[in-house]
Specification:
Elements lengths: L3 E5 L10 H8 L18 H29 L2 H9 L1 H16 L11 H13 L5 H20 L6 H12 L2 H15 L1 H8 L3 H11 L6 H9 L14 H6 L5 E4 L4 H8 L5 H11 L4 E9 L4 E7 L15 H9 L4 H13 L6 E7 L1 H10 L2 H6 L1 E8 L14 E7 L23 E5 L12 H9 L3 H10 L5 E12 L2
Parallel strand pairs: 1-8, 4-5, 5-6, 6-7, 7-8
Antiparallel strand pairs: 2-9, 3-4, 3-9
Helix pairs in contact: 2-6, 3-4, 6-10, 7-8, 7-10, 8-9, 10-11, 13-14, 14-19, 15-17, 16-17
Length: 488
Amino acid sequence: MAPQVVDETAQRLPTRKGPDAAAQSTAPAAPAPAAQEPAPARIDSELLIAASVLLADAALTAKQSGAELTGALFSWRFGLEALRRPGWALGTAASCAQALTASTGLGFGANGGLIGELARMAGSMTYRRPAKVAMAVDAFALRIKAAAADHPGLDSPAARRLTDAMVAGNRLEALRAMYGLIELLGVTRALTTVSPVIMELMALLGMLDENPVNDDFSWVTLAGGVPTTDPFLGLPSSVLKFLNPGPGRAERTEPDPILAKVLATSRNDIVSYVNDIGALGNHGLVLLRRVACADGAVRYVLLLPGTSFGLLSNSTPQDLVGAFDGLLRTDTTYTRAAKKLLRRAGLPTGSELMIVGHSLGGMTAMNLASDVEVSSTYRVTHVVAIGSPIDSKRPADHTTRVISLVNKHDVIPGLDGRGPASPHDIPDSWVELAWLDESYDYPLSHAPQAYSDALRGEFTHYREQVNKLIGEYDGEVVGNQPYMLRDK
């Protein structure tokens, strides 16, 4: 069974009806127009992505071949054999060196091990472009071209100037192009324009600069994984645990009048959940709901808002440091605080639980679902992620239903490495509903209100589809308990 991915981006064209249309059909034929230039052929994005997959596989194979050849050349076994057969060893070493360095071979493709990594770093700092890098760059270039087929803004001259400079490894020209794009469109529109290929652009930056320690970001992105290092300095994600070390704390609190008014009309409906999350804000509040369901069972819903962009770090888990931590790791302050909430609330063992989250809240929902302790204590039946980069995460219980809602203008969902031009897919059992709406600019396209408006408007059929998937939670809301989460 293929994963259920629904991508609604087709434009509706008006059709003419009525007497005028009939009159047109019986009118004399107009003179043939003068010959015109043939329209350019439409780019087949699927073919471009397929070609990028082949190039990526070739680049990764060349990288692995270089590592194995380097390892064999500098192994103790080769050294021992060289003592016995020096003539053979000299010829073999010369052939290996030629294969590793010649432009007709791997083109300075040494890597792996102490000597191989020193050689790779020397090549990176001297701007050598081995075969593996050339093929990887071409693969990223094809992904960018494929994304431009569905995102016309990427095909504009100003955006092409930026992407071409990044592919060429010309950072100075890329800076000029980015400045020109911002001057032309403004910061938010410029960011939205390049957002479909932001991971590819960062991967190109890491691969083509002279810094030899940030290349892992690029290779992991090429292979379809989630990088565990940053693209600029190559710092590992483990650094984040020192920046986000809080044990997490959850305290009961009372809703303010605005939140109480929203919760009073809330029900088991995806639009209602998104509105509830919007009313909770992003200053540490979350909500645990108790529902007496129509089938007689008592179930629970946990609502998790996203990130506060005011400060890099604050006293709650909903800060920027927490967002990066939640993307790259599962045991985060937000996750720990939410687990303490569930224990403090006294949920019975085996309780059925649905977790709905926006942005960082969606990542935390998946982090909770992937936690063996949570999955063995409760039955996480559903995870609903709204505008969240969750595609690299997996629930511990294979029966957990994962539903992902994505506005394709939203920058954030693509931070997991699976952007519009990524060849990698989600698990078969997941449901992903993606669309393009009128909320073009980021951060408007990421706001809960934008998702709510889309689901209440043009994409109401997605609302109906999600509501059907979570229908077992229909019933009477018998408890709404807000909690304030803190780092400590």
